[in-house]
Design a protein that fits this description.
With about 180 residues, the protein is mostly helical. Helix content is about 60%, strand content about 0%.
Amino acid sequence: MGGVGSHGGPHARGCIGAECELPGRSYRDWGHLAPLFFASALLISVGFARIVLLARSAGRSGNMQRIGAIIVALGVATVTTATLIQGIFFGGDFPLMPYFVIPGGLAIAIGFLLSGIAILRTGVLPRWAAALLITATMVMLGVNEQNKRILMAIPFGIAWIAVGYTLRSARDRAPAVQTS
């Protein structure tokens, strides 16, 4: 936080809905943290794709995982589209942003919950990692990037670090295929 909005100073306090119409108020932007956000989103996408591919190659991919992945993709597309509209056409202060971010964020959370349950059922990750991902996704439902509730995103990041570690260490332990 604390980015520059069209109505606020260098450390404008974030707002929600009609509050943003008051003089001196603006939605907070990501500012210099935007590249970090996009890098983390990319890493999560790579990890998520790896899990989906692992389940598919093990013959354990089911409808719940496919539906979860589709819902996550739709949520990400909604939030990404709104972010682009905000940046290109509204200079970082898109008044309809909540109408995109809230349903998009809910879609992402629901998709990750369905996928987490499918991951738990398929066994492509240790049970603790899948349970951590499910729990952290539920905590994400309370996130609000306009105030201190942004800290509720930390467990989600930790869960994905654990998933990445698990995927990496499983790959390192896999026996090498010998060709003759």
